[in-house]
Amino acid sequence: MAKKVIPYKDSAKGKKEQVTAMFDAISGNYDGLNRVISFGIDVKWRRKVVNILKEKKPKTILDIATGTGDLAINLVETGADKIVGLDISKGMLDIGKKKVLQKNLGSTIEMVVGDSENLEFEDRTFDAVTVAFGVRNFEDLNKGLSEILRVLKPGGTFVVLETSVPTKTPFKQGYKFYTKYMLPVIGKLFSKDRSAYTYLSESAAVFPHGSEFNNILKKTGFIAMENRPQTFGVASIYIATK
Question: Which pTM was predicted?
Fold first, then answer.
């Protein structure tokens, strides 16, 4: 990333600790606020991730930065035998666990607290790894991606859904106005934590996207990178293989 962005600029804690505290703080409002902020389009984007993996027919999936488990729950449709939802925020996971139990998916989905940059899994454990709106929160992006590569089986699929910045007029200007001025205000109204949603918009603005992120994946050791921009370029789905 060209610039280090952290949630709480007046805190002496590292990014990882701040991100954990931030998501713990906003966990209760996260799902509803996501629908408002994205106008519900994030549901469609996750559906596309699921459809990509349906074609791959993975038996084991690791969903990193699973949050409240939306993607992990949707991934059941791939027919996977085991899905592990991992997140550093216990607050987010507690909500996710309730959702998994309500849908009687406890035999398929396991929700665990974990650090994406220090995964406690053996090499070559998973057929697929997914991350939805999480890679930009990594404290050390290269380390996190290297860990993902390590736990993937040879031939395994890595799918990332992440925000990006539109490059064409007028979407570029509209996106900048919305994320800089509107998103933090909406976040403040819903969660009483304006800093959190200021961070989310700032981190999206500086995160490497498109070909730049594909190049990082290539340097990490992934092959067959593909980038699929979504909704005028406000998000992207990246697909890579080990």
Answer: 0.92
